[in-house]
Sequence to fold (118 residues):
Amino acid sequence: QVQLVESGGGLVQAGGSLRLSCTASGRTFSSYAMGWFRQAPGKERMFVAAINWSGGGTSYADSVKGRFTVSRDNAKNTVYLQMNSLKPEDTAVYYCARRLSDTLWDSWGQGTQVTVSS
Fold:
């Protein structure tokens, strides 16, 4: 199992941008697809974006398509989430995780808070 540490969250006005980072320990990072999830207060955790092991394939939740971009740098053991045109409804704790299968994720990080003010 790897350890994941998210960073880059903060307070931003609607329409602004943030870039989240998720850095992994261990030497197997590049072997796995990675994903971003978020959880707003009182709501279930939801999928945001995912990227395959090479960075050549990505997927997004409909609610963030065209605004968020997931990328990775395997040399730095880091996956990124560039968030543009942020909306108040994007406010949540954002987590990264490693994908073991289509429905199984592990090695969740501690999360980073993103707050978008209107």
